[in-house]
Amino acid sequence: MTLDAAQLKIDVTEGEAWRRTLAVTVPADIVRTERSKIAKTLAARVRIPGFRSGKIPASVMEKRFGAALNQEMVDRVVGDAYREALKASDLSPISEGEVEELEYEPDAELTFRISFDVNPEIAFARVGGFAVERPAAVVKDEDVDRVLERLRDQNGTWAPAEEGRPTAGDLVSVSVTRLDSEDGDEEPRPYDLILGEGDAIPDVESAIYTLDVGEQGEFDVTFPDDFPNEERRGQSEKLEIQLRERKIRELPEVDDAFARSLGDFEDLDTLRGRIREDLEKEAGDQSEGAVRGQLLNAIIEANPFEVPSSMVDRYLDSILGDGQGADPERLAQARDQLRGEAVRSVQRILVIERIAEQQELQSTDDEIDARVEEIAEKNDSNPAEVYARLQKAGRIDQLEREITEQKVFDYLKEQSTITDASA
């Protein structure tokens, strides 16, 4: 159907800072015309014994399909009138509209009220004049050593151990048999697991620690309350466990040869230098992130505003996912625990967006092209190919946000005093 806002009566009511309600009245002649169109279309499609297609009397159509005609008409008229009312009122909802009142009688006008959220208005009294301390970005020798140890562990190998009982960190192969199974599942099952990493329930791990390679034993175990199989939670069973194989982790020496094995490093000092550079960049990014967080928090404290629950809920959805397969009670608990931080995160996002709009700091096409060229140069790639890959992966929008945020924070730092903390 074709509707014009001029044909409608539209009233806008403001609730909370972000809540709007539209009261819309659609004239009776428009309602009758739309219902008549729907009835004609339906009459041409349906088949009723005793009547030719398209020749079904209106009285028969009303008797058979009156309720369905009304519902189809209401859906169409409300949908089109809502869209026109939004345009006429210059409103952009950020949540689904909720129809709160709808009145319709045959041969009469149709009225409805629909409420929704919009972006909250933020009036900035001040966005600068704050004193912010930048945390020191310090990288110590111990930090480099920890990365080296992690690389060493990642490049370790497994070697068979013929003697001795296993310890935490060992890779073991075991077979487990349920001795008092009620469902007839008494065949031994093989498992490979690393001890101490939670791959097995505590009672099973404790049992494995008591065995030598090739040895087996019978053990009473109790399944924990969070065991995946709900029927076995809290239940006790007798298991026969055999330790078939044990392997220990052998780690390489941290020397020049180790450094060369990891890539284009002449010696261990070169590797340590690269690790330090990476850690310093990471520490610098964290320090910059701390400055940004302090600035945004200061702005929010100086210009307090509330945010719609719908925005907070969407943010939580993006963090926690759709919750399929999750325990509803735990999911609800997680949402409650994260809600406070989610509110602050939404406030920060809105502050960045509003300042970008007010100061005209949104990213430009030239800036995006320049960033793509930087990425291409670092990866020795063609800029056009890089852009195509980013676009296909849906990351151009992310690039735009990153550039806009950088410009916003450059502006905000100019408005405040940033001092460096002593190391």
Characterization of this structure:
With 423 residues, the protein is an alpha+beta fold. The chain folds into three domains: 5-117, 2-Layer Sandwich (Alpha-Beta Plaits), CATH 3.30.70.1050; 157-250, Chitinase A, domain 3 (Roll), CATH 3.10.50.40; 258-420, Orthogonal Bundle (Trigger factor, domain 2). The protein is 47% helix and 18% strand. The chain is built from eleven helices and eleven strands. Strands 6, 7, 8, 9 and 10 form a five-stranded antiparallel beta sheet that branches. A four-stranded antiparallel beta sheet has the order 1-2-4-3. The longest helix is centred in the last third of the chain and has 35 residues, at 268-302. The termini are far apart. 13% of the residues are buried. The model has no long low-confidence stretch (mean pLDDT 90).
Please write the CATH class name of the largest domain: Mainly Alpha
Low-confidence runs of at least 5 consecutive residues: none
CATH architectural group of the largest domain = Orthogonal Bundle
Q: How many strands in all?
A: 11
Task: Give the distance, in angstroms, between the N- and C-terminal Cα atoms.
Answer: 69 Å
Helix content percent band: 40-55%
CATH topology of the largest domain: Trigger factor, domain 2
Rg value: 34 Å
Mean pLDDT figure: 90
Tell me the count of domains: 3
